[in-house]
Write a structure and sequence with these properties.
By secondary structure, the protein is of the alpha/beta class. The chain has helices at residues 2-6, 14-22, 54-64, 81-88, 100-112, 150-154, and strands spanning 71-75, 92-97, 118-122, 135-144, 157-169, 172-180, 186-194. The longest helix has 13 residues, at 100-112. Residues 56-188 form the Ribosomal RNA adenine methylase transferase N-terminal domain.
Length: 210
């Protein structure tokens, strides 16, 4: 996985590579898909949900550049794999999952595997500001069709904080990194093209009508 998928996709941060090599991805994959735990695919979990492909996780972690002690918000816990990676990098993670079944399963899994500094909450990450901010890093694991929610999310960043999210609709989605440069200033950088399932409860753009 590391040498065939992640490095070739431009992930060269040794801390990220070591973290992903150390964490047993198969422990976060449903039993039916264990044989595909390290494949270059989005493994299905729950209903209309999936784990991010390993190469996307690597690019996300590299972009956020989490340091020990960083307060980090994750929107979309899913299986808990990304939460585990963030924690192993030293982050203090608040992870929100709107699906109660996924939230409970991820919480139990992370506790069983003894990952520390992770709080999984059953909540909608787009409903409003999250208690515990501001955050040094925010990871959004589902896509949003427009940047309508971007202002609310980036306002939860500390100065110097980084936000990773995917904006757009099929077939044109792009991963972006937003950095808060000051109390009122933000810098936005396009990272790569990808395709992710949409976040639940995200506001869909109005369709064209004649």
């Amino acid at each position: 996985m590391i040498h065939q998928q992640i490095r070739p996709w431009g992930v060269l941060d040794e801390r990220v590579l070591e973290t992903m090599a150390e964490i047993p991805r198969e422990s976060f994959v449903p039993d039916a898909y264990r044989g595909l735990a390290y494949a270059d695919i989005e493994v299905p979990i729950g209903i209309d949900n999936c784990m991010l492909a390993p190469k996307v996780v690597g690019r996300l972690l590299q972009a956020l550049a989490v340091k020990p002690g960083d307060k980090t918000l994750e929107i979309g816990t899913g299986s808990g794999y990304l939460s585990a990676c963030l924690s192993r990098l030293g982050a203090r993670v608040v992870s929100l999952e709107i699906d109660p079944v996924l939230a409970n399963a991820a919480r139990a899994r992370l506790e069983r595997l003894e990952f520390a500094r992770i709080e999984v909450r059953e909540a909608d990450g787009l409903a409003g500001p999250v208690q515990g901010g501001p955050f040094e890093a925010i990871a959004v694991t589902g896509s949003m069709p427009t940047d309508a929610a971007l202002g609310m999310l980036r306002d939860q960043l500390a100065v110097g904080g980084r936000l990773f999210c995917v904006i757009g609709e099929e077939p044109a989605m792009r991963a972006i990194l937003v950095t808060r440069t000051s109390q009122t200033g933000f810098r936005q950088q396009a990272l790569f093209e990808t395709s992710l399932p949409s976040l639940l409860n995200v506001v869909e753009p109005a369709g064209f009508e004649f």
